[in-house]
Design a protein that fits this description.
CATH superfamily of the largest domain: P-loop containing nucleotide triphosphate hydrolases
Radius of gyration: 25 Å
Strand content: 15-25%
Largest sheet: 10 strands, mixed
Oligomer: single chain
Distance between the termini: 49 Å
Number of strands: 24
CATH architecture of the largest domain: 3-Layer(aba) Sandwich
Number of helices: 18
Number of domains: 2
Shape: globular
CATH class of the largest domain: Alpha Beta
Amino acid sequence: MESKYIFVTGGVTSSLGKGIVSASLGMLLKSRGYKVSILKLDPYFNIDPGTLNPYEHGECFVTKDGAETDLDLGHYERFLNQSTTRENNVTSGIIYKTVIDNERKGNYLGKTVQVIPHITNEIKRRIKILGESKIYDIIITEIGGTVGDIESLPYIESVRQMKWELGKFNGLVIHLTLLPYITVTGEIKTKPTQHSVRNLMENGIQADIIVCRTEKHISKNIRQKLALFCNVKPIHVIESIDSKIIYEIPYLLHLQNFDKVVLNHLKLSTIISPNLKKWKIFIKKYKNPKYEVKIALVGKYVSLHDSYKSITEALIHAGTENKIYVNIKWIYSEMIKKENIKKYFKGISGILIAPGFGYRGIEGKILAAKYARENKIPFLGICLGMQIAVIEFARNVLGLKKAESFETNPHTSHPVICLMERQKKIINKGGTMRLGNWKCSFIEGSKIFSIYRKKEVFERHRHRYEFNNNYLECFSKAGMKAVGINPDTGLVEALELDNHIFFLGVQYHPEYKSRITNPHPLFTYFIKISKIYKSFDIQNSSYI
Protein backbone atom coordinates (compact mmCIF):
# COMPACT_ATOMS: atom_id res chain seq x y z
CA MET A 1 0.00 0.00 0.00
CA GLU A 2 1.21 3.53 -0.82
CA SER A 3 1.70 5.72 2.24
CA LYS A 4 -1.09 8.11 3.19
CA TYR A 5 -0.20 11.59 4.43
CA ILE A 6 -1.75 13.62 7.24
CA PHE A 7 -0.78 17.27 7.74
CA VAL A 8 -1.34 19.03 11.08
CA THR A 9 -1.40 22.83 11.00
CA GLY A 10 -2.05 25.36 13.75
CA GLY A 11 -3.93 28.62 13.96
CA VAL A 12 -4.85 31.55 16.23
CA THR A 13 -1.84 31.14 18.53
CA SER A 14 1.21 28.99 19.06
CA SER A 15 1.72 26.33 21.76
CA LEU A 16 -1.77 24.86 21.41
CA GLY A 17 -0.44 21.31 21.38
CA LYS A 18 -0.01 20.28 17.74
CA GLY A 19 2.69 17.86 18.87
CA ILE A 20 0.39 16.18 21.40
CA VAL A 21 -2.49 15.98 18.91
CA SER A 22 -0.15 14.49 16.27
CA ALA A 23 1.31 12.01 18.76
CA SER A 24 -2.16 11.09 20.06
CA LEU A 25 -3.46 10.43 16.56
CA GLY A 26 -0.35 8.43 15.74
CA MET A 27 -0.84 6.30 18.83
CA LEU A 28 -4.52 5.66 18.02
CA LEU A 29 -3.74 4.67 14.42
CA LYS A 30 -0.87 2.44 15.49
CA SER A 31 -3.10 0.76 18.08
CA ARG A 32 -5.40 -0.16 15.17
CA GLY A 33 -2.56 -2.02 13.47
CA TYR A 34 -1.23 0.66 11.11
CA LYS A 35 2.47 1.47 10.79
CA VAL A 36 2.83 5.15 11.59
CA SER A 37 5.62 7.71 11.70
CA ILE A 38 5.52 11.42 12.54
CA LEU A 39 7.57 14.23 11.00
CA LYS A 40 8.06 17.68 12.52
CA LEU A 41 8.75 20.64 10.22
CA ASP A 42 10.17 23.66 12.08
CA PRO A 43 10.20 27.06 10.35
CA TYR A 44 13.23 28.53 12.14
CA PHE A 45 16.57 28.89 10.35
CA ASN A 46 18.72 27.11 12.91
CA ILE A 47 19.93 23.83 11.44
CA ASP A 48 18.67 22.17 14.63
CA PRO A 49 17.76 23.25 18.19
CA GLY A 50 21.13 22.03 19.50
CA THR A 51 22.54 25.55 19.70
CA LEU A 52 19.36 27.14 21.05
CA ASN A 53 19.04 28.23 24.66
CA PRO A 54 16.35 26.02 26.29
CA TYR A 55 14.46 29.20 27.19
CA GLU A 56 14.10 29.81 23.45
CA HIS A 57 12.71 26.45 22.41
CA GLY A 58 12.52 24.10 25.39
CA GLU A 59 14.34 20.81 25.58
CA CYS A 60 16.61 19.58 22.80
CA PHE A 61 15.62 15.94 22.23
CA VAL A 62 18.30 13.54 20.95
CA THR A 63 17.42 10.62 18.67
CA LYS A 64 19.18 7.26 18.67
CA ASP A 65 21.16 8.18 15.54
CA GLY A 66 22.46 11.36 17.13
CA ALA A 67 20.19 14.08 15.78
CA GLU A 68 19.44 17.07 18.00
CA THR A 69 15.76 17.69 17.46
CA ASP A 70 12.60 19.43 18.62
CA LEU A 71 11.09 18.33 21.93
CA ASP A 72 7.95 17.13 20.11
CA LEU A 73 9.94 14.11 18.94
CA GLY A 74 10.04 13.06 22.57
CA HIS A 75 6.22 13.07 22.57
CA TYR A 76 6.22 11.04 19.35
CA GLU A 77 8.50 8.40 20.88
CA ARG A 78 6.63 8.23 24.18
CA PHE A 79 3.17 7.99 22.57
CA LEU A 80 4.07 5.63 19.72
CA ASN A 81 6.57 3.62 21.79
CA GLN A 82 9.03 3.67 18.89
CA SER A 83 12.29 5.46 18.17
CA THR A 84 12.69 8.39 15.81
CA THR A 85 15.68 9.39 13.68
CA ARG A 86 17.07 12.55 12.09
CA GLU A 87 14.55 12.08 9.26
CA ASN A 88 11.71 12.87 11.68
CA ASN A 89 12.69 16.54 12.17
CA VAL A 90 13.45 19.08 9.46
CA THR A 91 14.05 22.82 9.90
CA SER A 92 14.09 25.72 7.47
CA GLY A 93 17.81 25.89 8.16
CA ILE A 94 18.23 22.38 6.75
CA ILE A 95 15.93 23.09 3.79
CA TYR A 96 17.58 26.33 2.72
CA LYS A 97 21.12 25.02 3.30
CA THR A 98 20.38 22.03 1.08
CA VAL A 99 19.01 24.24 -1.70
CA ILE A 100 21.93 26.68 -1.48
CA ASP A 101 24.46 23.80 -1.48
CA ASN A 102 22.75 22.37 -4.57
CA GLU A 103 22.93 25.76 -6.27
CA ARG A 104 26.65 26.02 -5.54
CA LYS A 105 27.16 22.60 -7.11
CA GLY A 106 25.32 23.70 -10.24
CA ASN A 107 22.53 21.19 -9.75
CA TYR A 108 19.85 23.60 -11.00
CA LEU A 109 21.47 24.02 -14.43
CA GLY A 110 21.59 27.80 -14.34
CA LYS A 111 17.97 28.31 -13.29
CA THR A 112 17.04 31.19 -10.97
CA VAL A 113 16.64 29.61 -7.51
CA GLN A 114 13.34 30.63 -5.90
CA VAL A 115 11.03 29.67 -3.04
CA ILE A 116 8.72 28.10 -5.63
CA PRO A 117 9.64 25.58 -6.91
CA HIS A 118 13.06 24.96 -5.34
CA ILE A 119 12.35 25.44 -1.62
CA THR A 120 8.89 23.84 -1.83
CA ASN A 121 10.28 20.90 -3.83
CA GLU A 122 12.90 20.29 -1.15
CA ILE A 123 10.23 20.45 1.57
CA LYS A 124 8.10 17.93 -0.32
CA ARG A 125 11.12 15.67 -0.87
CA ARG A 126 11.81 15.66 2.86
CA ILE A 127 8.17 14.88 3.69
CA LYS A 128 8.15 11.95 1.25
CA ILE A 129 11.36 10.31 2.53
CA LEU A 130 9.57 8.36 5.27
CA GLY A 131 6.79 7.32 2.88
CA GLU A 132 9.20 6.17 0.19
CA SER A 133 10.88 3.83 2.69
CA LYS A 134 7.82 1.54 2.24
CA ILE A 135 7.86 0.92 5.99
CA TYR A 136 4.94 3.12 7.02
CA ASP A 137 1.27 3.11 6.06
CA ILE A 138 0.64 6.62 7.36
CA ILE A 139 2.94 9.65 7.68
CA ILE A 140 1.79 12.44 9.99
CA THR A 141 3.50 15.77 9.33
CA GLU A 142 3.28 18.49 11.95
CA ILE A 143 3.86 22.00 10.58
CA GLY A 144 5.50 24.20 13.20
CA GLY A 145 4.37 27.76 13.81
CA THR A 146 0.99 29.29 13.05
CA VAL A 147 -0.87 29.79 9.78
CA GLY A 148 -0.25 33.36 8.70
CA ASP A 149 3.37 33.45 9.93
CA ILE A 150 5.70 34.61 7.14
CA GLU A 151 8.24 31.90 7.90
CA SER A 152 5.59 29.17 7.62
CA LEU A 153 4.35 30.15 4.16
CA PRO A 154 6.66 27.82 2.16
CA TYR A 155 5.45 24.87 4.25
CA ILE A 156 1.79 25.76 3.79
CA GLU A 157 2.37 26.09 0.04
CA SER A 158 4.11 22.69 0.02
CA VAL A 159 1.12 21.13 1.78
CA ARG A 160 -1.21 22.70 -0.80
CA GLN A 161 0.83 21.22 -3.64
CA MET A 162 1.13 17.79 -2.01
CA LYS A 163 -2.57 17.54 -1.20
CA TRP A 164 -3.36 18.16 -4.88
CA GLU A 165 -0.64 15.76 -6.07
CA LEU A 166 -1.64 12.96 -3.66
CA GLY A 167 -5.30 12.97 -4.58
CA LYS A 168 -8.49 13.21 -2.52
CA PHE A 169 -8.12 10.07 -0.40
CA ASN A 170 -4.35 10.05 0.12
CA GLY A 171 -3.93 13.36 1.93
CA LEU A 172 -5.69 14.94 4.89
CA VAL A 173 -5.32 18.31 6.65
CA ILE A 174 -6.07 18.69 10.36
CA HIS A 175 -6.19 22.27 11.63
CA LEU A 176 -5.74 22.90 15.35
CA THR A 177 -7.18 26.16 16.65
CA LEU A 178 -8.15 27.90 19.88
CA LEU A 179 -11.68 28.50 21.13
CA PRO A 180 -11.20 31.23 23.76
CA TYR A 181 -13.58 31.31 26.72
CA ILE A 182 -14.73 34.75 27.85
CA THR A 183 -15.25 34.44 31.60
CA VAL A 184 -17.27 37.66 32.00
CA THR A 185 -19.95 36.60 29.53
CA GLY A 186 -19.54 32.84 29.96
CA GLU A 187 -19.13 32.36 26.21
CA ILE A 188 -16.91 30.27 23.97
CA LYS A 189 -15.96 32.37 20.95
CA THR A 190 -15.63 30.77 17.51
CA LYS A 191 -14.59 33.83 15.51
CA PRO A 192 -10.78 33.32 15.90
CA THR A 193 -11.17 29.79 14.54
CA GLN A 194 -13.27 31.01 11.62
CA HIS A 195 -10.60 33.58 10.72
CA SER A 196 -7.84 31.00 11.05
CA VAL A 197 -9.58 28.55 8.74
CA ARG A 198 -10.27 31.38 6.27
CA ASN A 199 -6.57 32.29 6.39
CA LEU A 200 -5.73 28.68 5.56
CA MET A 201 -8.21 28.74 2.65
CA GLU A 202 -6.64 31.94 1.31
CA ASN A 203 -3.48 29.87 0.97
CA GLY A 204 -5.35 27.26 -1.05
CA ILE A 205 -5.97 24.67 1.67
CA GLN A 206 -9.33 23.48 2.94
CA ALA A 207 -9.07 21.89 6.40
CA ASP A 208 -10.67 18.45 6.47
CA ILE A 209 -10.84 18.20 10.26
CA ILE A 210 -10.79 20.99 12.85
CA VAL A 211 -9.48 20.23 16.33
CA CYS A 212 -10.48 22.90 18.85
CA ARG A 213 -8.37 23.53 21.93
CA THR A 214 -10.72 24.65 24.67
CA GLU A 215 -10.99 24.91 28.44
CA LYS A 216 -14.74 24.22 28.36
CA HIS A 217 -16.70 21.47 26.62
CA ILE A 218 -18.16 22.63 23.31
CA SER A 219 -21.86 22.23 22.66
CA LYS A 220 -23.63 20.71 19.67
CA ASN A 221 -24.59 24.22 18.55
CA ILE A 222 -20.96 25.35 18.50
CA ARG A 223 -19.95 22.27 16.50
CA GLN A 224 -22.66 22.99 13.95
CA LYS A 225 -21.69 26.65 13.76
CA LEU A 226 -18.03 25.82 13.16
CA ALA A 227 -18.97 23.19 10.61
CA LEU A 228 -21.13 25.70 8.73
CA PHE A 229 -18.56 28.50 8.62
CA CYS A 230 -15.51 26.27 8.09
CA ASN A 231 -16.88 23.93 5.41
CA VAL A 232 -16.59 20.67 7.35
CA LYS A 233 -19.05 18.12 8.71
CA PRO A 234 -20.06 18.49 12.40
CA ILE A 235 -18.42 15.13 13.18
CA HIS A 236 -15.19 16.60 11.78
CA VAL A 237 -15.13 19.23 14.54
CA ILE A 238 -13.16 17.64 17.39
CA GLU A 239 -12.84 18.97 20.92
CA SER A 240 -9.41 18.99 22.60
CA ILE A 241 -10.18 20.04 26.12
CA ASP A 242 -7.49 21.03 28.63
CA SER A 243 -6.26 18.02 30.59
CA LYS A 244 -3.99 17.75 33.61
CA ILE A 245 -2.34 14.68 32.09
CA ILE A 246 -1.38 14.66 28.42
CA TYR A 247 -1.64 10.87 28.26
CA GLU A 248 -5.41 11.14 28.67
CA ILE A 249 -5.75 13.13 25.43
CA PRO A 250 -5.63 10.15 22.99
CA TYR A 251 -8.47 8.48 24.86
CA LEU A 252 -10.53 11.70 24.93
CA LEU A 253 -10.01 12.15 21.18
CA HIS A 254 -10.91 8.51 20.53
CA LEU A 255 -14.23 8.94 22.37
CA GLN A 256 -15.13 11.48 19.65
CA ASN A 257 -14.18 9.00 16.89
CA PHE A 258 -11.22 11.16 15.86
CA ASP A 259 -9.19 8.20 14.58
CA LYS A 260 -12.21 6.70 12.82
CA VAL A 261 -13.01 9.98 11.03
CA VAL A 262 -9.39 10.19 9.84
CA LEU A 263 -9.36 6.61 8.54
CA ASN A 264 -12.72 7.01 6.81
CA HIS A 265 -11.45 10.10 4.99
CA LEU A 266 -8.35 8.19 3.85
CA LYS A 267 -10.47 5.19 2.79
CA LEU A 268 -8.69 2.91 5.25
CA SER A 269 -10.27 0.10 7.25
CA THR A 270 -11.65 0.71 10.73
CA ILE A 271 -12.47 -2.94 11.40
CA ILE A 272 -9.69 -3.33 13.96
CA SER A 273 -10.55 -1.39 17.11
CA PRO A 274 -7.71 0.38 18.94
CA ASN A 275 -6.16 -1.59 21.78
CA LEU A 276 -6.00 0.96 24.59
CA LYS A 277 -5.84 -1.47 27.51
CA LYS A 278 -2.31 -0.58 28.67
CA TRP A 279 -3.06 3.11 28.15
CA LYS A 280 -6.17 2.93 30.36
CA ILE A 281 -4.29 1.01 33.05
CA PHE A 282 -1.61 3.70 33.10
CA ILE A 283 -4.15 6.53 33.42
CA LYS A 284 -6.00 4.72 36.21
CA LYS A 285 -2.77 4.15 38.14
CA TYR A 286 -1.69 7.75 37.59
CA LYS A 287 -4.98 9.07 38.97
CA ASN A 288 -4.97 6.75 41.98
CA PRO A 289 -1.52 6.87 43.61
CA LYS A 290 -1.00 5.58 47.14
CA TYR A 291 1.99 7.69 48.10
CA GLU A 292 3.70 10.96 47.29
CA VAL A 293 7.42 11.67 47.03
CA LYS A 294 8.94 15.12 46.68
CA ILE A 295 11.78 15.22 44.18
CA ALA A 296 14.03 18.26 43.99
CA LEU A 297 14.89 18.93 40.36
CA VAL A 298 17.94 21.19 40.47
CA GLY A 299 18.71 23.06 37.24
CA LYS A 300 19.40 26.42 35.66
CA TYR A 301 16.39 26.57 33.29
CA VAL A 302 13.68 25.68 35.79
CA SER A 303 11.47 28.70 35.04
CA LEU A 304 10.56 26.97 31.75
CA HIS A 305 9.59 23.42 32.66
CA ASP A 306 9.72 22.32 29.01
CA SER A 307 13.52 22.68 29.29
CA TYR A 308 13.47 19.34 31.12
CA LYS A 309 10.42 17.78 29.45
CA SER A 310 11.81 14.26 29.02
CA ILE A 311 12.98 14.18 32.65
CA THR A 312 9.61 15.24 34.03
CA GLU A 313 7.82 12.69 31.84
CA ALA A 314 10.26 9.95 32.91
CA LEU A 315 9.50 10.81 36.55
CA ILE A 316 5.77 10.55 35.81
CA HIS A 317 6.25 7.15 34.14
CA ALA A 318 8.34 5.85 37.05
CA GLY A 319 5.99 7.25 39.68
CA THR A 320 2.92 5.75 38.06
CA GLU A 321 4.66 2.37 37.79
CA ASN A 322 5.22 2.51 41.57
CA LYS A 323 1.75 3.96 42.30
CA ILE A 324 3.47 7.09 43.56
CA TYR A 325 2.67 10.71 42.79
CA VAL A 326 5.92 12.50 42.04
CA ASN A 327 5.73 16.06 43.32
CA ILE A 328 8.54 17.94 41.58
CA LYS A 329 10.09 20.85 43.47
CA TRP A 330 11.80 23.07 40.91
CA ILE A 331 14.99 24.60 42.32
CA TYR A 332 16.99 27.23 40.45
CA SER A 333 20.57 26.23 41.21
CA GLU A 334 21.93 29.78 41.30
CA MET A 335 19.76 30.49 44.35
CA ILE A 336 21.29 27.70 46.45
CA LYS A 337 23.74 29.00 49.08
CA LYS A 338 25.31 27.43 52.16
CA GLU A 339 23.13 29.53 54.43
CA ASN A 340 19.79 28.60 52.80
CA ILE A 341 20.31 25.06 51.55
CA LYS A 342 18.30 23.40 54.35
CA LYS A 343 15.29 25.53 53.40
CA TYR A 344 15.40 24.33 49.79
CA PHE A 345 15.69 20.63 50.62
CA LYS A 346 13.37 20.40 53.62
CA GLY A 347 11.05 17.41 53.26
CA ILE A 348 12.70 16.25 50.05
CA SER A 349 12.58 12.54 49.15
CA GLY A 350 15.23 12.63 46.43
CA ILE A 351 17.52 15.03 44.55
CA LEU A 352 17.99 15.05 40.79
CA ILE A 353 20.61 17.31 39.23
CA ALA A 354 19.66 18.04 35.64
CA PRO A 355 21.83 18.42 32.52
CA GLY A 356 23.07 21.79 31.32
CA PHE A 357 25.98 23.78 29.96
CA GLY A 358 28.11 26.71 31.12
CA TYR A 359 29.24 28.11 34.45
CA ARG A 360 26.08 29.77 35.72
CA GLY A 361 24.51 27.89 38.63
CA ILE A 362 27.35 25.36 38.92
CA GLU A 363 28.26 26.15 42.53
CA GLY A 364 24.65 25.76 43.64
CA LYS A 365 24.52 22.35 42.01
CA ILE A 366 27.74 21.36 43.78
CA LEU A 367 26.19 22.34 47.12
CA ALA A 368 23.11 20.25 46.27
CA ALA A 369 25.25 17.19 45.48
CA LYS A 370 27.17 17.66 48.76
CA TYR A 371 23.91 17.90 50.70
CA ALA A 372 22.59 14.69 49.12
CA ARG A 373 25.86 12.83 49.80
CA GLU A 374 26.26 13.93 53.41
CA ASN A 375 22.59 13.50 54.36
CA LYS A 376 22.19 10.16 52.56
CA ILE A 377 19.39 11.48 50.34
CA PRO A 378 18.71 9.46 47.16
CA PHE A 379 20.59 11.19 44.34
CA LEU A 380 20.54 10.95 40.56
CA GLY A 381 22.87 13.08 38.43
CA ILE A 382 22.32 13.17 34.67
CA CYS A 383 25.10 14.23 32.26
CA LEU A 384 26.33 17.50 33.85
CA GLY A 385 24.68 16.18 37.03
CA MET A 386 27.20 13.31 37.11
CA GLN A 387 30.05 15.74 36.49
CA ILE A 388 28.83 17.91 39.36
CA ALA A 389 28.92 14.90 41.69
CA VAL A 390 32.50 14.24 40.58
CA ILE A 391 33.63 17.82 41.26
CA GLU A 392 31.94 17.86 44.65
CA PHE A 393 33.52 14.56 45.68
CA ALA A 394 36.96 15.69 44.51
CA ARG A 395 36.76 18.90 46.51
CA ASN A 396 35.20 17.66 49.74
CA VAL A 397 36.32 14.04 50.02
CA LEU A 398 39.59 13.86 48.09
CA GLY A 399 40.69 17.31 49.30
CA LEU A 400 41.26 18.70 45.79
CA LYS A 401 39.85 22.13 46.66
CA LYS A 402 40.47 23.59 43.21
CA ALA A 403 38.88 20.70 41.33
CA GLU A 404 36.72 21.90 38.45
CA SER A 405 35.54 21.05 34.99
CA PHE A 406 37.70 22.07 32.04
CA GLU A 407 34.48 23.53 30.60
CA THR A 408 34.15 26.21 33.27
CA ASN A 409 37.87 26.67 34.04
CA PRO A 410 40.41 25.53 31.41
CA HIS A 411 43.25 26.57 33.75
CA THR A 412 42.23 24.48 36.78
CA SER A 413 45.00 22.48 38.42
CA HIS A 414 42.62 19.55 38.90
CA PRO A 415 40.47 19.04 35.77
CA VAL A 416 38.50 16.07 37.10
CA ILE A 417 36.16 16.67 34.16
CA CYS A 418 38.06 17.16 30.91
CA LEU A 419 37.37 17.76 27.24
CA MET A 420 36.98 14.56 25.24
CA GLU A 421 40.02 13.86 23.07
CA ARG A 422 38.07 13.84 19.81
CA GLN A 423 36.51 17.21 20.72
CA LYS A 424 39.79 19.13 21.04
CA LYS A 425 40.07 20.09 17.38
CA ILE A 426 36.39 20.84 16.85
CA ILE A 427 35.51 24.52 16.36
CA ASN A 428 31.84 24.53 15.28
CA LYS A 429 29.27 24.10 18.05
CA GLY A 430 26.28 22.68 16.19
CA GLY A 431 25.91 18.91 15.93
CA THR A 432 29.48 18.18 17.03
CA MET A 433 29.03 16.71 20.50
CA ARG A 434 29.06 13.02 21.37
CA LEU A 435 25.50 12.31 20.32
CA GLY A 436 23.09 9.39 20.05
CA ASN A 437 23.37 5.78 21.14
CA TRP A 438 26.63 4.58 22.72
CA LYS A 439 27.32 1.30 24.45
CA CYS A 440 27.74 1.06 28.21
CA SER A 441 29.08 -2.03 30.02
CA PHE A 442 28.21 -2.43 33.71
CA ILE A 443 30.34 -3.89 36.47
CA GLU A 444 28.71 -7.03 37.88
CA GLY A 445 27.79 -6.68 41.52
CA SER A 446 27.19 -2.94 41.24
CA LYS A 447 23.89 -1.28 42.11
CA ILE A 448 23.35 -0.14 38.52
CA PHE A 449 23.90 -3.68 37.22
CA SER A 450 21.16 -4.94 39.57
CA ILE A 451 18.82 -2.16 38.35
CA TYR A 452 19.24 -2.82 34.63
CA ARG A 453 19.70 -6.59 35.00
CA LYS A 454 21.85 -6.41 31.90
CA LYS A 455 25.57 -6.50 31.26
CA GLU A 456 25.43 -4.02 28.37
CA VAL A 457 22.99 -1.35 27.20
CA PHE A 458 22.84 1.42 24.62
CA GLU A 459 21.94 4.85 25.95
CA ARG A 460 21.71 8.27 24.30
CA HIS A 461 24.35 10.93 24.87
CA ARG A 462 24.81 14.67 24.43
CA HIS A 463 28.08 15.99 25.83
CA ARG A 464 31.62 17.19 25.08
CA TYR A 465 33.23 16.66 28.47
CA GLU A 466 34.01 13.47 30.37
CA PHE A 467 35.36 12.10 33.60
CA ASN A 468 39.16 12.40 33.64
CA ASN A 469 40.41 8.81 33.92
CA ASN A 470 43.68 10.04 35.49
CA TYR A 471 41.67 10.38 38.71
CA LEU A 472 39.89 7.04 38.44
CA GLU A 473 42.01 5.16 40.96
CA CYS A 474 41.83 7.76 43.74
CA PHE A 475 38.07 8.10 43.30
CA SER A 476 37.62 4.35 43.50
CA LYS A 477 39.72 4.02 46.64
CA ALA A 478 37.67 6.76 48.33
CA GLY A 479 34.36 5.04 47.56
CA MET A 480 33.11 6.58 44.31
CA LYS A 481 33.44 3.84 41.72
CA ALA A 482 33.09 3.71 37.96
CA VAL A 483 30.39 1.10 37.40
CA GLY A 484 29.59 1.84 33.75
CA ILE A 485 32.26 2.04 31.04
CA ASN A 486 32.13 2.41 27.29
CA PRO A 487 34.03 -0.72 26.17
CA ASP A 488 35.36 0.90 22.99
CA THR A 489 36.63 4.24 24.33
CA GLY A 490 37.10 3.60 28.05
CA LEU A 491 34.92 6.62 28.87
CA VAL A 492 33.20 6.51 32.25
CA GLU A 493 29.45 6.25 31.76
CA ALA A 494 28.29 5.77 35.36
CA LEU A 495 29.61 6.38 38.87
CA GLU A 496 28.06 5.27 42.14
CA LEU A 497 28.93 5.92 45.76
CA ASP A 498 29.54 3.24 48.38
CA ASN A 499 27.74 3.35 51.73
CA HIS A 500 24.84 5.40 50.49
CA ILE A 501 21.15 4.52 50.02
CA PHE A 502 21.39 5.54 46.34
CA PHE A 503 23.91 7.95 44.86
CA LEU A 504 24.38 7.53 41.12
CA GLY A 505 25.63 9.72 38.30
CA VAL A 506 25.30 8.81 34.62
CA GLN A 507 26.95 10.58 31.69
CA TYR A 508 24.11 9.63 29.36
CA HIS A 509 20.46 10.70 29.22
CA PRO A 510 18.21 7.84 30.39
CA GLU A 511 15.14 10.09 30.21
CA TYR A 512 15.05 9.93 26.41
CA LYS A 513 14.15 6.23 26.43
CA SER A 514 11.41 6.22 29.06
CA ARG A 515 7.92 5.17 27.92
CA ILE A 516 4.59 4.89 29.73
CA THR A 517 4.48 1.14 29.05
CA ASN A 518 8.20 0.74 29.74
CA PRO A 519 9.49 3.26 32.30
CA HIS A 520 13.25 3.60 32.40
CA PRO A 521 14.67 1.34 35.14
CA LEU A 522 16.92 4.07 36.61
CA PHE A 523 13.97 6.40 37.17
CA THR A 524 11.81 3.55 38.44
CA TYR A 525 14.42 2.61 41.02
CA PHE A 526 15.14 6.23 41.93
CA ILE A 527 11.47 6.84 42.74
CA LYS A 528 11.16 3.53 44.58
CA ILE A 529 14.18 4.25 46.78
CA SER A 530 12.99 7.84 47.32
CA LYS A 531 9.73 6.44 48.69
CA ILE A 532 11.69 4.29 51.13
CA TYR A 533 13.71 7.32 52.22
CA LYS A 534 10.75 9.66 52.73
CA SER A 535 7.19 9.36 51.48
CA PHE A 536 3.81 10.83 52.31
CA ASP A 537 0.42 9.18 52.50
CA ILE A 538 -1.49 10.45 49.47
CA GLN A 539 -4.59 11.13 51.62
CA ASN A 540 -2.67 13.87 53.42
CA SER A 541 -0.72 15.20 50.44
CA SER A 542 -1.05 18.12 48.07
CA TYR A 543 -2.11 15.74 45.29
CA ILE A 544 -5.72 15.59 46.44
